[in-house]
Amino acid sequence: MRRFSALTATAVLATGLITGCGSSSGGGSGSSSSDYCKDLKSSAAGIKAFTADNATPDFAKVADFIDNAHGLAKKAPSDIKDDWATMVAAMDALTDALNEAGLKVEDIGTLMTGQLPAGADPSKLAGLTSKLQEIGSDKVQKAGAAIAKQAKDTCKIDLKSAG
Question: Which domain of life does the UniProt lineage start with (predicted)?
Answer without folding.
Answer: Bacteria
